[in-house]
Design goal:
Helices cover 52% and strands 2% of the residues. It is an all-alpha fold. Helix 15 runs antiparallel to helix 16. The chain binds acetyl coenzyme *A.
Length: 414
């Protein structure tokens, strides 16, 4: 990994130009600060590639348009963690290992049972994942082992935490995970106490495949920064979950869920969009830092949301569809120089409503897929580590004399 201070290396001269046009210099030293690191390359990865202009996402060179319909989530986990798609035997042994790691330590289940029922599911997930680190051996320096088996353990346990809290906060008894079901089917089973039908399992599985990795997105970058200090994998994933929570990132899925409820029927979509934009607010689930076209994952999620809607209640899909059309139309009128289209979170909302989840669970379920990418990035970071420590451009007052307390007036003047 190559890291350079302030005068960073850019994707290409075109992006460099774009980046410096949008950035805001904070001083007259001539160093340009790239706000939000837009267009800045801070490292390299073999794991996934986001080509925002073309609207293409690949995992280790495989297009998600091929993976989504043909590979199950466990195959993608193997691809990310071991570097290649598994043979039948490799897939079988990964499934066995995942199944064996699904159970949570009993004290963590008790801790969730003692947690106030109104606690936000992402806060619970972050806290319990951090708690997992208490149940593994550490050496004399406090270091844990952070290897591929730790990664598999976390991939196995994150859905158990999400499903366990889903039931506890609804006043129900948690359900023990099963070892004979896929990640997708077992997750739905633990939430509902019923083995899902093929349609629901396939929809959940495709969602997990599509969410598994996305290059240096904010939460993954957070994980890598934490891992670069040589903190353990539980710490890195805890940081990633904290970063995923915000509305500008994974929190948008739950926000779209609230929007669908507020809009209520397809005919209200355009009025809603106009009102939101008139207030200077954003349409949740629309826009992306990297994609300047529709997010390639949205088309698959739209398809499964429509299919599931046909089998259950088409209402959520129809509102989402109308909302996307209205957003495209109104954003073209109001922000013609911007490219703001549906992102991965947009069709997650109707899909999850059709699967029977409540809106506050959407972002934790995102983590059930992204845990594969987070852990793979931590391993990649550790395999060629250098502390990630950028610089800031100081914009405060120049050096000046210390003021003894008796001479301070409280307004900064002596
Ligand atoms: N609705 C309306 N306007 C938008 C939207 C939106 N969803 N997204 C961006 N814009 C506008 C901004 O208002 C701004 O316009 P202006 O310059 O006229 O004021 C312009 O586009 C650029 O906005 P930035 O915030 O600089 O763009 P950025 O690249 O940082 O935005 C982001 C990316 C944060 C995702 C943004 O599109 C957004 O807030 N979307 C809504 C939240 C969301 O869906 N987040 C999930 C992203 S996907 C994921 O992380 C899994």
């Amino acid at each position: 990994m190559v890291l350079r201070p302030a005068h960073v290396c850019h994707a290409s001269s075109r992006r460099a130009k774009l980046s410096s046009q949008r950035s805001k210099p904070l001083s007259t030293t001539g160093i340009v600060v790239d706000r939000g690191l837009e267009g800045v390359i801070v490292g390299s990865t073999l794991l996934s590639n986001v080509e925002g202009k073309e609207g293409r996402l690949t995992y280790r060179g495989y297009d998600i348009h091929d993976l989504a319909p043909h590979a199950c989530f466990e195959e993608v986990v193997h691809l990310l963690l071991y570097g290649h798609l598994p043979t039948k035997d490799e897939l079988e042994s990964l499934k066995v290992e995942l199944g064996a790691h699904r159970m949570l330590p009993e004290p963590l289940i008790t801790a969730m049972q003692s947690t106030p029922k109104h606690a936000w599911p992402m806060d619970v997930l972050r806290t319990i994942v951090s708690g997992l680190g208490l149940f593994v051996d550490v050496d004399q320096t406090g270091a844990h082992t952070s290897d591929v088996h730790t990664a598999i353990e976390l991939v196995a346990k994150v859905p158990t935490i999400v499903a366990t809290w889903d039931r506890i906060h609804r006043g129900m008894e948690p359900i023990e995970p099963r070892t004979d079901l896929s990640q997708a089917a077992n997750f739905l089973y633990m939430c509902r106490d019923t083995v899902p039908d093929r349609v629901a399992e396939d929809a959940m599985d495709m969602y997990l495949v599509l969410l598994a990795d996305h290059s240096f997105n904010a939460s993954t970058f957070s994980a890598r920064v934490t891992a670069s200090t040589k903190a353990d994998m539980y710490a890195a994933v805890t940081a990633a979950i904290a970063t995923l929570e915000g509305e500008a990132h994974g929190g948008a899925a739950s926000a779209v869920g609230r929007v669908l409820l507020e809009v209520g029927k397809p005919e209200r979509a355009e009025t809603y969009v106009r009102e939101v934009l008139a207030r200077g607010q954003r349409i949740m689930g629309m826009g992306h830092r990297e994609y300047k076209v529709r997010d390639p994952r949205a088309q698959h999620l739209e398809t499964v949301a429509r299919k599931l809607g046909e089998a259950t209640d088409p209402k959520w899909y129809e509102i989402a569809r109308a909302l996307e059309e209205a957003s495209n139309k109104v954003l073209k009128e109001t922000k013609p120089d911007r490219s703001i289209y549906a992102n991965v979170d947009f069709y997650t909302a109707p899909l999850f409503y059709s699967l029977g989840f409540s809106g506050d669970e959407f972002t934790p379920i995102f983590a059930c897929g992204r845990i594969a990418g987070w852990t793979a990035h931590v391993l990649e970071q550790l395999s060629n580590n250098r502390l990630i420590r950028p610089q800031a451009q100081y914009a405060g007052p120049p050096v000046h004399p210390f003021e003894p307390i008796e001479r301070r007036t409280g307004n900064g003047k002596t």
